[in-house]
Amino acid sequence: MNDKYEAVIGLEVHAQLLTDTKIFCGCSTKFGSAPNTNVCPVCLGQPGVLPVLNKKVVEYTVLMGLATNCRINRKSIFARKHYFYPDLPKNYQISQYEEPICEHGHITIEFKDGTKKKIGITRIHMEEDAGKSIHDQDFDTLIDLNRTGTPLMEIVSEPDIRTPEEAYLYLTKLKQILTYLGICNGNMEEGSLRCDANISVRLKGETKFGTKTEVKNMNSFRNVERALAFEIERQIDLLEDGKEVVQQTLLWDADANVAQPMRSKEEAHDYRYFPDPDLMPVVIEDKMLDEIKSRMPELPDEKKNRFIENFGLPAYDAEILTSSRELADYYEKILTVTKDYKSASNWVMTEVLKVVNEEKIDISAFPVSPENLGKLIELINNNTISGKIAKDVFPEMLRSNKDPETIVKEKNLVQITDTSAIESIVEKVLSANQKQVEEFLSGKEKVLGFLVGQIMRETKGKANPQIVNEILRNKLNTLK
After folding, report:
1. What does the pLDDT look like over 43-66, one tens digit per residue?
2. Domains of the chain, first to last
């Protein structure tokens, strides 16, 4: 990016809410149903029907507003947003405009170097989704209206974002909060989380905004980064060539790595907003607000700070372990069995997440229970088995999900701690490796590792390493 310029980025995020039914009717929101089966006269926009607001949508939106430091407006209204798409049966969308339910919030993002930045949230409002247009190879357009009326929450940021990296961190934090609250699954592939970006560039030091474009169709956070980087460079190149940036909507083509023009950018007046006459204002009373506040879980930043302060974990560990609520819960369940906080963290971050990432499964589907992993850690700490043996027990736990104590007994893996037994094996190894003994006595300390390895091989890895090292050194010192 040319250092003369800076980007001004605002993001509009649509989160599909995890309600069982749609926002204004009783139709199911289940994903993957046969086309046009989860529909009724209300979501099809047939004459004479009346919408009835789903209370859960209000509660979930208020919960997100509280979690992002928003002001909760005690009165908000629904508006009709008029536009024509084949998959919008009413030719208008019920949304909120002048009086949204949540306003003036913020979240804080953190960079790799530990510095932080506050990103403002202009508004959070409720609205219904449109249907889905499917374009087949014969150039026909098929319409599936199952998604029509699915409850959405739109989160509009302030134009505080300056780089694609900041946008990525902002989206990651939003998704983390949404999933911690349990109100959205954050699945971009299913369309549960969607992002549109408004982008302009200006000379550094300039206060006036440049002409903005909107980029749509970004189906992953990395694609948002790539699309923003492309559009920023495109606008800078235009300005450097003395050309103007045209206000328009662009579609991101991830395969070609380019943004293609779709249409001219609409302004608010193009939608002819007016209050929806079929819906009463949404009024949030004290009792309802207090009840919603009581449901607030421990949020990611709070949990991360607690893991650092209470468990003495490094910030990096705490960041990984609290990346999802389910992973944090898994870690804390291990701690009901063991108080070795760091070992528990190490096992989760290495062995557990390795399997989760390779198998592409959720932590909820991970076959080893946190309690059993805690038992494995305790077997190491009480010297029943060595860390090396534990690494052999763990794959068996993955296969069978047996209790680690059972596996250790069945395979006769209990650690040898009998000093006299270990001493006789040490003497045997020293006798068989006179050359290495002489090298050690001449000052080559590295040979010690070889000798330890030979002893562990003789005991099939079952000898206590600390006792082995102690006896071996004592024997070698007597030879000096």
Report:
1. 999 999 999 999 999 999 999 999
2. 5-291 (no CATH), 300-394 (no CATH), 419-479 (1.10.10.410)
Closest among 431, 434, 362, 372 to 397, alpha carbons compared: 372
**How does pLDDT run across 130-141, given as a tens digit for each residue?**
998 887 777 788
Better-scored residue on pLDDT, 299 or 473? 299
What distance in Å separates the CA atoms of residue 168 and residue 158, rounded to the nearest whole number? Answer: 15
Rg, C-alpha atoms of the chain: 30
Torsion of CA 296, 300, 302, 303, to 10 degrees: 100
**Looking up tokens 């293609």, which residue turns up?**
260
Residue whose C-alpha is closest to residue 72's, from 15, 17, 150, 124: 124
Alpha carbon distance 48, 350 (integer Å): 59
Integer Cα distance of 476 and 447 in angstroms: 12
Rounded Cα distance between 103 and 122, Å, is: 6
Query: Which long-range contacts (C-beta less than 8 Å, at least 24 apart) are formed by 239-247?
Result: 239/5, 239/201, 239/210, 240/2, 244/211, 245/200, 245/201, 245/210, 245/211, 245/213, 246/211, 246/213, 247/211, 247/212, 247/213
d(CA 162, CA 201): 9
| Six token digits for residue 331 | 């870690």
pTM of the predicted protein model = 0.86
Largest CA distance in the chain: 101
